[in-house]
Amino acid sequence: MRIRGAVLEEVGRPRPYADSRPLTVGELELAGPGRGEVLLRLQAAGLCHSDLSVVDGNRARPVPMLLGHEAAGTVQEVGPGVTSLRPGDHVVATFLPRCGECEGCLTHGIRPCVPGTVSNTAGTLLGGQRRLTRAGQPVHHHLGVSGFATHAVVDVRSLVRVDADVPPGVAALLGCAVLTGGGAVLNTRAPQPGSTVAVVGLGGVGMAAVLTALAQDDVRVVAVDAVPAKLEAAKALGAHVALRPEQVPHSAVRAALVVEAAGNVRAFETAVALTAPGGTTVTVGLPAPDARAAVALTALVAEGRSIVGSYLGSAVPSRDVPLFVELWRSGRLPVERLISSTISLDDVNAGMDALADGLAVRQVVDLEHE
């Protein structure tokens, strides 16, 4: 079938992306679902720094590639062997499929799925297949989803069913921003009543961590970012303290759990400095592969502190997405407040500029009207 999508043509084009246009929006061919795969009519997709990191070259991926990994839609057709979903079901796509059998999956979220990581790097679905072509030439999948499109074929192990009452924009954010930020709060060192949680970096992932911490009983939340508008947004969500990075060394505030969600060295070092004795720094941001940070090792030993890496919030999507849906449904996790704006597929290059400039928490591509 013919679909419409945004394909990354070349890595590392100069900014502004609205002018250099690394993403071409146009028609592609999408083959039907194979064994264990599902055809989706996509409804919404979020713009995430993991998309931007492919555009700017911080994450090496093969091109051409149909980008987008944070998406939601409805099932149109299921391939052979799929029994857990049926046409009409609403689903969240997650960018880290889980085979359920490898040594990574056996860690219950602590480590990524091994074959899932291999397929994501290669630009294929979990089964090793590609279902996208353009003018007869193959187009790579992005993290098993390729959500910047009207339709997608996705391995069923990359999907989680949700009820129809979850709006598409909210459902899309559950698959990446909320799983990553919220999962970092709940799956690494769950906050105890009376404790303080800090979040450094207030993009979509960081703000999701803020919301998740606020959803816990009797937890004080500290928000840190260099952009004043994001600090104001965090306070509007309910954060108790808002700090610029340069204020952290001079502040008496320290947290038992600090989530670093910016993906740069300064943010990581700020997060470590903000961590209380006996506390845990959880880093979920993905900086450039050659990034290195300076950490005072003596403080880790003498103060009993921990540094933990967390990929996709150490989440198991089939376990954690329903948990976050229930928090949203109860009103304790207002995910819709993370959506800065809704854009069209044609605006995706300009959207990457806004993301790079730190001007948005989460932009959502409205695919229902494409």
SSE blueprint and pairings:
Layout: E1 2-8, H1 17-20, E2 23-30, E3 37-46, H2 49-55, E4 65-66, E5 70-78, E6 90-93, H3 114-122, E7 132-134, E8 137-141, E9 151-155, E10 159-162, H4 168-187, E11 196-200, H5 204-214, E12 220-224, H6 228-237, E13 241-243, E14 255-260, H7 265-274, E15 275-283, H8 297-302, E16 306-309, H9 317-329, E17 339-343, H10 348-356, E18 362-366
Parallel strand pairs: 4-8, 11-12, 11-14, 12-13, 14-15, 15-16, 17-18
Antiparallel strand pairs: 1-2, 1-4, 2-7, 3-5, 3-9, 3-18, 5-6, 6-10, 7-8
Helix pairs in contact: 4-5, 4-9
List keywords for this structure.
370 residues; Rossmann fold; 27% helix; seven-stranded mixed sheet; 27% strand; 2 domains; alpha/beta; Quinone Oxidoreductase, Chain A, domain 1
Over the alpha carbons, how many angstroms does the gyration radius reach? Answer: 20 Å
Number of helices: 10
Overall geometry comes to globular
Element-by-element helix/strand order: EHEEHEEEHEEEEHEHEHEEHEHEHEHE
| Mean pLDDT across every amino acid position | 96
Per CATH, the class of the largest domain reads: Alpha Beta
Stretches where pLDDT falls below 50 for ≥5 residues? none
Helix/strand-derived category reads alpha/beta
Number of strands: 18
Largest sheet: 7 strands, mixed
Residues in β-strands, percent: 25-35%
Helical content (DSSP H or I, runs of 4+): 25-40%
Total domains, how many?
2
CATH superfamily label of the largest domain: Medium-chain alcohol dehydrogenases, catalytic domain
Assigned CATH architecture of the largest domain: Alpha-Beta Complex
